[in-house]
Amino acid sequence: MGSFKTKGAILLLIFLLLLLFMASVSMGRVFISGSELFTLAANFFSGNEITQDLVSKELVFWWIRFPRCVMAVLVGSGLAVSGAVYQALFRNPLVSPDILGVSAGCTFGAALGLILPFDSFSLVHVLSFGFGLLAVSLSVGLAKIIAIKPVIVLVLAGMVVLSFFNAMLMVLKYFSDPYEELPSIIFWVMGSLSRVTWDNVLVMAPFTLVGLAIFIILGFRLNILSLGDIQARSLGMNPVFFRRMLIVASSFMVAISVATCGQIAWIGLIIPHMARAVTGPEHEKMIPITALLGGIFLLAADSAARTVSTAEIPVGIITALTGAPIFGYLMIKNRGTGWL
C-alpha cells in the first residue's frame, strides 16, 4: 500500500513538474502560447524551417528559457536532496546546507575565485567545492570537540562556521573592485538563474543526476545511518566511510549549484520535511519525492522572479520570502510530535 502511494505521488509530481515547466517557458516579456510551443518543438525535431514571426520566439525559447528552466529543476532537486541527506546523516531536522555553513563556504569560495586575477569557470567550481567541504568539516569537528549535546551543538557549530564565512565574504566585498568585481559577488550571494546557458546545464546535469542516483541506491543505508553509529555497526555497516562519502557527494552538489546560480536558501531545509510528510522517513522512497518537490519549488520561484515585476527579482529573495513562512507552518503543524 505504501509503495503504491509513493508511486502515485511520484507520477502526480512528475505531471505537475511538466505542467509547470510548460507554463514557465511560456511566461515572460515575450509570451509563447501553447500552439507556438508545439510548433517550435515539432520544427526542431523535424528539421523544418519556422516562419519569420517565430524566429525571435525560437531564440528566446531554446537559448534563454529552456536551459534556465532545466537548470532550475536540477538545482532545486540537488539542493533539496542534499538537505535530506544532511538531515539523515546528522539525525537532526534543523540541519541543511545553509545552517551547517556549506552554502556560505561555497559562496566564499566562488567569490574568491571571481576576484583572483587568473579566475576561470573551473577555478570558481573548485574553490566553491573546497570551501564548502571545509565548512561542513569545521562544523562537524567543532561539534565533536564540544560533544555535550551533539544534536544541538552541531547546529550551533554550523552557525559559528556560517558567521565566519559570511564575515570573510564581507572582507572580500570590501576589498573588491566596486565596478567590476563587487557586482559579480553580489550576484552569487543573492542567487539568480538569469545568466544560465546550455554550457552550465551540461556541467550541472551529470553531477546532479549521478548524485541523485547514488542517494537513491544508498537510501537503505541512509535509513541505517539515521539510527546512529552503534546500530549501523551492529548491522555490519561502516558508518564512518558511508557518512564521509555521502557528505562529499552532497557537498559537491551544493557547491556546483552555488558556483552556477549563487546562494539559494531554504530549499535544503523545508523540502525534505514536505517530502517526509508524503512518504515517511524511508529514504529510498523519500529521495525521489524530495527531488521532484525541490525542482517544482525552485522552478515556481524562478517563474515568479521573472514575472512579478518588470525588473527581474533574484530568485534567492523569492525562496527566502516563501521558505520562512512554510517552515514556520511546518513547525506549528508538527508541534508535540517529536519532530523538533
Summarize the structure.
The protein is mainly alpha-helical and 340 residues long. The protein has helices at residues 2-26, 34-46, 55-89, 102-115, 121-146, 150-175, 181-190, 198-217, 219-225, 229-234, 239-261, 267-279, 283-307, 315-333.
Question: Can you tell me about this structure?
Answer:
The protein has one domain (2-333): Orthogonal Bundle (ABC transporter involved in vitamin B12 uptake, BtuC), CATH 1.10.3470.10. 77% of the residues lie in helices and 0% in strands. With 340 residues, it is mainly α. It is globular. The chain contains 14 helices and no strands. The relative contact order is 0.16.
Provide the succession of SSEs. Answer: HHHHHHHHHHHHHH
CATH fold-level name = ABC transporter involved in vitamin B12 uptake, BtuC
- The oligomeric state is single chain
What structural category characterises the helix and strand content?
mainly alpha
Note the main attributes of this structure.
single chain; 340 residues; mainly alpha; ABC transporter involved in vitamin B12 uptake, BtuC; 14 helices; globular
Outline the fold blueprint:
Elements: H1 2-26, H2 34-46, H3 55-89, H4 102-115, H5 121-146, H6 150-175, H7 181-190, H8 198-217, H9 219-225, H10 229-234, H11 239-261, H12 267-279, H13 283-307, H14 315-333
Helix pairs in contact: 1-3, 1-13, 3-8, 3-11, 3-12, 3-13, 4-5, 4-6, 4-7, 4-11, 5-6, 5-11, 8-11, 8-13, 9-13, 12-13, 12-14
